[in-house]
Amino acid sequence: MPDSYIIEVNSQTAGIVVRNPEGYCFFASSHRFNRLEGQIFRNAREAERAARRLVNGDLREAA
User: Which of 31-59 are b and which e, b meaning 16 or more Cβ less than 10 Å from the residue's Cβ?
Assistant: First the structure.
């Protein structure tokens, strides 16, 4: 299993997630995704869903 993944939303790079002992830590690649910076996710797919929710305007569910 890879230790890092690039997260993209609508062909825009949202950031990367890097595996650590707690899960996958999100590192934002643009200010648009700063709200997710440093958050830990169970897997890369969960991080991608959070980034999509953020883009779609559902800020309560992104964090």
Answer: eebeebeebebeebebbbbbbbbbeeeee
